[in-house]
Amino acid sequence: MNSKELAQQRRESAIALRRAGRSRREIKEILAITSNAMLDRALRGEPPPAWTLRPRAKDEVRARARELREQGLDYDDIAGALGVSKSSVSLWVRDLPRPARLSYEECRKRSAEAAHRYWEAERPRREARREAVRDAAAAEIGTLTNREIIVAGAIAYWCEGAKNKPHKRQDRVIFVNSDPAMIRFFLGFLEAAGVDRGRLTYRLQIHESADVEAAERFWLLLTKAQSDQFRKTSLKRHNPATVRKNVGDSYHGCLRVEVRTSVDLYRQIEGWAQSAMADAAGLRDGSR
User: Fold this and answer.
1) CA torsion 16→19→20→26, rounded to 10°?
2) What pairing do the DSSP bridges indicate for beta strands 254-259 and 200-207?
3) CA gap 87, 82 in Å, rounded
4) Is the N or the C terminus of the chain less surrounded, counting Cβ atoms within 10 Å?
5) CA distances from 199 to 156, 218, 255, 264, 277 (A)
6) CA 121, 126, 127, 133: dihedral to nearest 10 degrees?
């Protein structure tokens, strides 16, 4: 048998083994083929079996890019939607015809849809980060002592409470807020300062278009006060031209908390707040 016939026989055997599902390494061992070049010549023209073909990682992305291009998206939009480079998009879709120019209304619609999709995915991630930071900060604070509650409460009052004016001194403790948590904190501050709950009076301030009775029940339950401690609700006239955001079941108006015979308490709060602010600013001893 000459070399040509031997090579043809080797080729036929190699192809038969390949079609039987043998790997290239197995074929080389069975036929005593000593090099990859010799095996390549024996298998020339024979397509690889299906089991050797691995799907390309970007085939699915490429197909999606072509779909988006056919829908009229430009290269930038496709790259942003798929998280790939603009050059990759160009390679995948440049054989497709250029889409017709979109109308202004369609551009706005697609931009709004893209923003909606982005924030649908991004908003939960941001909220998770916010919660992680809040939880870590809360763990740092721990349980407050009475002294710490008084310091924090005095500062809160100095930010939100009624204060004397140069043209009008009244020395009365009046605190108004719409945040239920802040109202609860302020009541806790008064308790730490030794103020009896019986000295407190309350007045709800709310828009007349809201559910006034539900809001009155809400604040009565939150404060755990007696109904006779609540003064007549103050209603704010509704202006139809005003677009209000504080509507719905979570809107309970503002609660005005007043401490009767509170001249000395007001002066104490003033002293606590001024001392805390001066200390934090380094003004007390000049060290800062």
Assistant:
1) 80
2) antiparallel
3) 13
4) N
5) 20, 20, 16, 14, 28
6) 160
Helix (H, G, I), strand (E, B) or coil at 47: coil
Contact present, 24 and 38 (Cβ < 8 Å): no
Give the whole-angstrom CA distance, residue 74 versus residue 111. 12
User: Which distant-in-sequence residues (6+ apart) come within 8 Å of 165 by Cβ?
Assistant: none
What pTM, to 2 d.p., does this model score? 0.59
The tokens describing 267, both together, are 């002066």
Q: Give the C-alpha separation, 245 to 214, whole Å.
A: 19
What is the structure's pLDDT at 27?
87
Alpha carbon 275 to its chain's center? 38
> Which residue's structure tokens are 């003064």?
231
Task: Provide CB contacts within 8 A for 237, sequence distance 6+.
Answer: 208
Evaluate whether 32 touches 21 at the Cβ level (below 8 Å): no
Residues whose CB falls within 8 Å of the CB of residue 34, separated by 6 or more in sequence, listed in order: 28
CA dist 206 and 208 (Å) reads 6
199 is written with which tokens? 């000295």
What integer pLDDT is reported at residue 79 of this predicted model? 87
Whether the predicted pLDDT of 288 surpasses 60: no
Contact 273, 198 (CB under 8 A): no
The strand pair at 234-236 and 200-207 is best described as parallel
User: Which residue is it, tokens 């719409």?
Assistant: 178
CA 233 to chain centre: 37
| Residue of 201, 185, 205, 194 whose CA lies nearest to 251 | 205
Region 145-162: mean pLDDT is 94
Least confident of 54-68, 104-118, 191-205: 54-68
